[in-house]
Amino acid sequence: MIRVLIVDDSAVMRNLLCQILAADPEIDVVGVAADAMVAREMIKALHPDVLTLDIDMPQMDGLAFLDRIMQLRPMPVVMISAMTMAGADVSLQALEMGAVDFVAKPQLDMRQAWPALRDEVVSKIKAATKTSVQVAQRPKRLVPKRADVPVRTRSPSKIVTIGASTGGVSALLEILNGLPENIPPILVAQHMPASFTRQFAKRLNDCCATTVAEATDNARALPGHVYIAPGDRHLVLVRSGLNYYCRLDEGERVNNHIPCVDILFASAATAAGSDGIGILLTGMGKDGAKGLAQMRQAGAATACQDEATSAIYGMPKAAMAIGAAEVELPLNRIAAYILERSSVDSRQGRQETAWSDAARLSGAVGQK
Predict the structure, then answer these.
(1) Where in the sequence numbering do the catalytic residues fall?
(2) What is the pLDDT of residues 185-204, one digit of tens each?
(3) Torsion region of 224: left, alpha or beta (phi above 0 gives left; psi -120 to 50 gives alpha)
(4) What tens digit of pLDDT does each residue of 350-366 get?
């Protein structure tokens, strides 16, 4: 049984969450708390496996309480936030501080809307129990930073695609913070609600050397720029002559996700071929594995985040199982891998010499 403690100042929300979670035979709601002070004592007494935490609470807000939890008793936390711009920003801060995931409150009648979110709430609680809480490796707040990396000649035809889900917010922050301005275009499919992706792009833009923005339809993919897929669109890469473009697709969910990583990677295999670089990061499920395999078959450089640094080793594990990635890397080595693969001198002799050069940059890694 997964022992869950619900912390929320709203009696309505506490009751709704209790009803949703109590209906699952694998979940045991061991307690509810209306504020952080009560929750602190209940954590000591009940030893829950997962905490659901509201952001707006009296006495001590959710972010301040999360910070204390992660310093004194690190544990999986799922935030409950408002589906607004302010709610998105605070939720992203929580993920950077160590929260596993978040659930956005419906803006309309909660009693009518929450049943539709039952699967999301339950799946995120269950996924939280499988996560590796690595608070020490995650920044508590965004600090403007510019990548201190030697300027190298980049191939003008290279392009990078990255897929991520649970744990991807902090992972992407670390990767992009390690990249200089002269990086090839980067397209990102991160599983995230539509109301949150624009704010996510803004937060990344504030701290990275590259220019980060939410992708728009028909936008030309430019060097030094990162394009985040909107949360309600599939991001597709197309090529016209020497130029790459972003296309947005309003299609149905694929692998139960929109944006879908498989769709982005499959389009990169077609549009970029051997000029592509595919990176699959932490996340639950299998999204991205087949698409990454297509990229590798097309001659692209492909890599996965390793188990030790993944919040959830689901998507990377699925990709490694089918041979989709040429190498599996710890998170702090992925930026160096992208830099090496996007260099002009790595376009030839990839199998013989290029990865050995990247290994010297990033340290010893186990190639699988």
Answers:
(1) 165, 191, 287
(2) 999 999 998 888 999 999 99
(3) left
(4) 433 344 344 334 433 33
Torsion-angle region of residue 206: left (phi > 0), alpha (psi -120 to 50) or beta? Answer: alpha
Helix (H, G, I), strand (E, B) or coil at 4: strand
Dump pLDDT digits (tens) for 328-346: 999 999 999 999 999 854 4
Instruction: Give me 267's structure tokens.
Output: 């389009």
**d(C-alpha 69, C-alpha 365), whole Å:** 33
Nearest to 227 by CA among 218, 215, 210: 215
Task: Tell whether omega for the bond before 259 is within 30 degrees of 0, i.e. cis.
Answer: yes
- Distances from the Cα of 339 to the Cα of 84, 258, 308, angstroms: 36, 28, 22
Question: Are 318 and 293 spatial neighbours (Cβ–Cβ below 8 Å)?
Answer: no
CA distance 344 to 75: 44
Cβ contact 168:232 at 8 Å: no
Residue 270 three-state SS: helix
The closest alpha carbon to 137, from 176, 171, 109, belongs to: 171
Q: Residue 223, Cα to own-chain centre: how many angstroms?
A: 22
Give the C-alpha separation, 174 to 207, whole Å: 10
Cβ-proximal residues to 121 (8 Å cutoff; 6+ apart), any chain: 17, 20, 21, 103, 114
Amino acid at 282: T
